[in-house]
Amino acid sequence: MVNLNDVLADMQSLIELESPSADLTACSQVVELTNEMLFSRLGKKGRVITVSSRDHLWWGSENPKVLLLGHIDTVWPIGTLKEIPFAINGDVLTGPGCVDMKSGVVQAIHAIAQINHPDIALLLTTDEEIGSETSRKLIEDAARSAIAVLVLECAQHEALKTARKGTSNYEIVAHGLASHAGLEPEKGINAGLAISEIALSVSKIGNTELGTTVTPTVIRAGTTTNTVPALAQLSIDVRAWSIDEQKRVDSEIRAISSTLPGIKIEVLGSINRPPLESRMSMGLFELAQEVAKDLGLPQLENAQVGGASDGNFTAALGIPTIDGLGAVGTGSHAKSEWVSVSAIVPRINLLAGMITRLLKAN
Known about the structure:
The structure is a single chain. The protein has about 350 residues and is of the alpha/beta class. The chain folds into 2 domains: about 5-165 and about 275-360, 3-Layer(aba) Sandwich (Aminopeptidase), CATH 3.40.630.10; about 165-275, Alpha-Beta Plaits, CATH 3.30.70.360. Helix content is about 35%, strand content about 25%. It is built from 10 helices and 16 strands. The strands form 4 sheets. The chain has a 6-stranded mixed β-sheet with strand order 1-2-6-3-7-14, with helices on both faces. It has a 4-stranded antiparallel β-sheet with strand order 4-5-16-15, with helices on one face. The chain has a 4-stranded antiparallel β-sheet with strand order 10-11-9-12, with helices on one face. Strand 4 (about 85-90) and strand 5 (about 90-95) form a beta hairpin. It is elongated, with a radius of gyration of 23 Å. The protein starts with a helix and ends with a helix. The model has no long low-confidence stretch (mean pLDDT about 95).
């Protein structure tokens, strides 16, 4: 039986320990706290794995049949807790990182506690929100033996996530030449103008019919108001449902040039996460529907979403992967994020039921 008070206490502990991705000390501390929680609830600690000075946490089998996947870093800077403290008001649980995705991590721990089986692993990383650069290989290695990967990101409202777009991230750097903007502007080569031209150009690479988005996001240029900028930078966010679209966009971005004489263009970045295609998740979704029915839960729905997760990596390996098995709530990356308290125990039971069925079938 799931003790909701214990679950809520664990959620409070994890949420109140702030862990922004860029803060390596904070990430190490949240790994340590989570490891103590694992010991308390499951009887043994996990293995802390350090990659490039960043800690990640692997609990359970070294060759799991079922891999539970999540992250314990958040987008929120230290100090956000003072602005958005942990609180429970009726059915609404709030706090930084509650829905994305610390509540899902706690739910997974309590689901595992219901199952005494050696072929489960829980992998929790601390760099998901910044691209999983140090954890990708770890995730792929953990998943290779698995028959299924269950991702603990939050539900899409109440729906499980059966498809996710792939993501690519780029930075275009324009190199020009500085000069005095008042005395000798003609002697400069304006990198700011070049990067503005490029921003307009790349925004046209997307394909609405195919759902491909190419979005200029951050633009930086110049040093002082009276200097022609010698350097300018443009960040670009790309989302696509297929790897072919990701490759097409990659080629077009790398071919970008400027019409301004003397400008040199540098393209940094690449495809980050491949898509999580629905064909890799629908079998697990059908299993989830069966388990939900047996538990007397409302019929489950599925959703396709634009955001990516670490499940994209495991699906790309050909391993059945389903996402959205964490908390029910909304507001990821927003100050309004919240978790439904009444959905916590049902989702723990759903996760435990899926794990049990998967292990019995193999």
